[in-house]
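Worked problem 6 (solution included).
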Amino acid sequence: MTRTPRDRSEQDVHSERTDPATAPAAVQGQDEEATEMVTSTGGQGPLEGAVIAVAGAAGPAGRATLLRLAEAGAVVVGSDANPERLAEAVDAARYAHGGATVIGETVDLLDLDQTREWAARTEKEFGRVDGLIHLVGGWRGCTTFTDTDLADWDTLHRLLIRTVQHTSLAFYDALERSANGRYLLISAAGASKPTAGNAAYAASKAAAEAWTLAMADGFRKSGGESGPRAAAAILIVKALVNDQMRAERPNAKFAGFTDVTELAEAIAGVWDRPAHEVNGQRLWLTPKP
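Solution. The predicted structure is:
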C-alpha cells in the first residue's frame, strides 16, 4: 500500500522556521506531583524482545531512539514522513546492532484508519505491541502576539495534536494487552509561561499533553484495584540538541538542552519502572520552570 507521509520527527520542532539554538520551548507542566525522571542505567532487561513502535523515527531524536531500543534487544517498528531518511535511520540501527529487528513503514498518521492498520499489522506480525513513542513534531511562531497567524495553529493542530490522537486511539488496546505497555509523548517545558509569539505552539503542545493524560486515566480506570496494566506518560525537555547542531554552531551554549542520546536513554528507562509509577506523569529531563 502506498501511503502519503505526514508525520514528522520531533527534532523538526527546532529546525523549521527557527534557530535550533534559540527555539522557544513551550509545553504545559501542570500536574501537582510531577516526577523527576530517572534514566536507565543500560542493559537489556524489560526491553529484551519488546515490540516498540516509533512515530517520527527519522530525525536525530528518532535515530538515537532506534539505536537505543535496538541495543536493548527490542523489536523496533519506525515510521516517518521521509522514506529516504527513515531507511537511513533503520539501516544505521541494524548496522550498529547486528541481528536487531528494526523495520520502517511510511504511514499517514493524519489518517486514523491507516494508523489503526499500522497498529493492527504490527501486533499481528509480532504478536504484541509494548510501546508507542511519539516523536512527531513541528514549530510555528512569530515576533509578537498580534503577529500570530492562525494558519500556524491549523498546521500545529495536525502535527502535534491530531497525530497524538490517532496514535493513541490506534495503539490503546494493544498496549493494554501487553504485559508492560507504554505510550510516551515527548514534550517541551515552558507552556506555563508561554511567550507572546509562541501562542499556537504552546497551546498545541498543552493540548497534546492533556490528551495523553486522558489516555493515562483510561489505563488507570481499566486497571481497577490492581492498578494500570499499561502507562501513558510525558517526557519533558527544554529543547533537543545533537552533534550536527553543535558542529553547525560551535560557539553556542545550548544551555539546558537535552542531548538526543540522553532522551533515548530516558525513553528506554521508562520500561524499568512499573506502570503505576509512570502512568499519568510528566517525567522531567530539565528543571521545572
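Discussion: The radius of gyration is 18 Å.
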